Amino acid sequence: MKKMLFLVNPKAGKGAIRNDLLDIVLIFSNAGYEVILYPTKDSADAERKIKEDGDCFDIIVCAGGDGTLDNVVRGYFAKGLDVPLGYIPVGTTNDFARTIKLSRKPTEAARQIVNGKVNKFDVGKFCDKNFIYIAAFGLFTDVSYNTNQSLKKVLGHSAYLVEAVKNITNYKGFYINAEFDGSSVSGEYIFGMITNSYSVAGFRIRGAKHVVLDDGKFDCLLVKKPSTVIEFQMVATAFLTNNFFDNEMFYMCKASKVSIKSTEAIAWTIDGEYGGSYEEIQIDNIEKAIGILVDTGSDYDDIDYKDIYDSIEE
Q1: Does 235 or 28 have the greater pLDDT score?
Q2: Stretch 195-202: mean pLDDT
Q3: Each residue of 115-137: pLDDT tens digit?
Q4: Per-residue DSSP letters for 163-216?
Q5: Cα–Cα dist 171/165, whole Å
Q6: What is the reported pLDDT for 208?
């Protein structure tokens, strides 16, 4: 009988996983797995558990949000594992799960794991940390902490956009020199992201129809700090309409290696969690570095990216 380490974040998504936990364990058990259930105790506990005895299992499955998945991936690479990974998304936004078409119904996601096939996906390396779908700095990375709770309840994810756009003129920019596979740009920027996802913070990314998750390339975006009323309008309109093309305030490209130097330390968010502050960073794409179980009815090689893009909520 194959052994499964089932890591569960009991706090993810306000603890919604608890209602389905027994059903999920039965699905795994009926599929022939000896399930070792491990509820995580803090944000770094999954990584610690995998480092300790992850090599004792034939498969590792986690239930939680993007932060939980990120922590699992760090432990996975630190331990040097090469076993299949399953993911049951029960967080708030579940950006990566949206991108690879995982069900957001916990029991259905469990069935996708036992009936699925392994597909290889790219993984990022940020200095000495691994990440699964995004590294970002600037405007949107701390806005969730400052957004009015009443506004969130009324507008949902749109509340973050309202708050971010409102703060553009007051937001401090960072002067950076950036290199993307040899091409370089410099200037003062208020936001930057290096990603492999169709969705960030629950918003679909216009232009993300062309994201490929196993080509060894990131999709990169930098946003200049506006200094005039016209530039402010250009940035605000782009965010509110979710359209960054043909706009001189935005720099977009694909790259496998990204280097950024700044005149001061910049705070980074990695897969939705604080990733540290740095004056200089390097981000590398590790092509097809991790195997994740996905729905056999959705051959990754034949995924219709437009369908995914259109299905992601505004």
Answers
A1: 28
A2: 64
A3: 999 999 999 999 988 998 889 88
A4: HHHHTGGGSPPEEEEEEETTEEEEEEEEEEEEE--SEETTEEPTTGGG--TTSS
A5: 10
A6: 45
